[in-house]
Amino acid sequence: MPPNAKLAFKGKIFEVWQWEQELFDGSTATFERLKRPDTATVIPVVGDKILLLDEQQPGTDVFLSFPGGRCDEGEDPLVAGKRELMEETGYESAEWELWSDAQPSGKIEWTMYTYIARDCTKTGELALDPGERVTPRFLSFDELLELPDKPDFRQWFMVPALLRARYEPEAREKLRQQLFG
């Protein structure tokens, strides 16, 4: 965020920041950027399967997603991923790897962290927010690679890597190793 940016609006999720910026012709214009909490997504591995959720939130149809959500204020993304995995699935893992961290847009200050959690074990029950409905289910590795074809798959940021793994043997083997060791 530029140092001269001013907070114009603060909602429950998003903040809108504005600043004056000089253009190439010497004139100025007001620029904006959104800011929101970072998010953590988890790809849980249970034995030789990957855990996926059929999820629904108020106002949406059921969609496919991996466990995850917003990082609470000041919360480390890995801690958020562990919390979300437990809340949404009842599973825990002692073996975590950061798979990717991406900023989806220059217009939004937001990092999406994606972790692989290996050797997950069921240790608790679901502890869902009132606005969540989830049904965990298991996928094979081959079914994981078919997710980009599903219009209700919400983790669009994973699609390029999954397609590479589907069509490039080296990328497939690398992903298989990352998931299953």
Could you explain how this protein is built, in words?
The protein is of the alpha+beta class and 181 residues long. It is globular, with a radius of gyration of 19 Å. 22% of the residues lie in helices and 39% in strands. The longest helix is centred in the middle third of the chain and has 13 residues. The strands form 3 sheets. Strands 4, 5, 6, 7, 9, 11 and 13 form a 7-stranded mixed β-sheet that branches. Helix 3 crosses helix 4. The N and C termini lie far apart (39 Å). It has 4 helices and 13 strands. It has 2 domains: 30 residues, no CATH class; 101 residues, Nucleoside Triphosphate Pyrophosphohydrolase (Alpha-Beta Complex).
Q: Quick one: CATH superfamily of the largest domain?
A: Nucleoside Triphosphate Pyrophosphohydrolase
Low-confidence stretches: none
Strand proportion, as a percent range, falls in: 35-45%
- Name of the CATH first level of the largest domain: Alpha Beta
Rg, rounded, reads 19 Å
Total strands: the figure is 13
Q: Give the topology string: H per helix, E per strand.
A: EEEEEEEHEEEEEEHHH
